[in-house]
Write a structure and sequence with these properties.
Elements: H1 7-42, H2 47-61, H3 65-78, H4 85-111, H5 114-122, H6 127-157, H7 169-180, H8 183-215
Helix pairs in contact: 1-2, 1-4, 1-7, 1-8, 2-4, 3-4, 4-6, 6-8, 7-8
Protein name: Amino acid ABC transporter permease
InterPro entries: AA_ABC_transptr_permease_3TM, ArtM/GltK/GlnP/TcyL/YhdX-like, MetI-like, MetI-like_sf
Membrane topology: Multi-pass membrane protein
């Protein structure tokens, strides 16, 4: 039975925001952890490690995120694992985010002037110390703006988790629309809520980028 859009429907959409933010936070933290490993592997002196990291990045960047979520969710069932939509969405987004963050941070690491690498090597620093004390502190300054920008994309990408049944903001919008049959109103509100989540981060990314550009002049 079709019902009118009411305050309760709006509250349901608003409550789904917390699951979108929670999923984004888990995927970002997990992706950052794995992504740092991937970035370090991409800049390693060991060729086999570099090739493995490159293959990982190309696999996840070269296939649609939607297909990756399908493979994680349904592939787990084939292998006898019982993953609920929440776990599958978090794992799929984490793997995808790690590939993109790894490549972003690889570029930031290699953006550090070569003279810094050579000077640190001349002081006798091996790779772990070189990264920890010389390269990574400088790369972080370059990495912050694109990392924040990627977080905006990650928040929007969580909408694909609706396909495997996870009730985040987009899925909540589908549920409300099926009950009220007012797609323009429902998905208009959903779009505004996404905008309110992403817009401050977009402003922060632009501000950090301008600050870094001024600092390097």
């Amino acid at each position: 039975m079709i019902r009118a859009f009411s305050y309760n429907e709006f509250l349901f959409l608003l409550s789904a925001v917390q699951w979108t933010l929670a999923l984004s936070a888990i995927a970002f933290i997990g992706g950052a952890t794995v992504g740092l490993v991937i970035a370090l592997a991409r800049t390693s002196d060991v060729k086999a490690v570099r090739l493995a990291a490159t293959g990982y990045i190309q696999l996840f960047q070269g296939t649609p995120l939607l297909m990756q979520l399908f493979l994680v969710f349904f592939g787990a069932t084939v292998m006898g694992l019982d993953l609920n939509p929440w776990t599958a969405a978090a794992l799929g987004l984490t793997l995808n985010a790690s590939a993109f963050l790894g490549e972003i941070w690889r570029g930031c690491i290699q953006a550090v002037p070569r003279g810094q690498w050579e000077a640190a090597s001349a002081l006798g620093l091996r790779y772990p110390g070189l990264m920890r004390y010389v390269i990574l502190p400088q790369a972080v300054k370059v990495a912050v703006p694109p990392t924040v920008g990627f977080l905006v994309q990650l928040i929007k990408s969580t909408s694909l988790a609706a396909i495997i049944g996870f009730t985040e903001l987009t899925r909540a919008g589908q549920i409300v629309n099926n009950a009220t049959f007012q797609p323009f109103l429902v998905f208009g509100i959903v779009a505004v809520l996404y905008f309110l989540m992403c817009w401050p981060l977009s402003l922060l990314s632009a501000r950090l980028e301008r600050r870094y550009a001024l600092a390097t002049r």
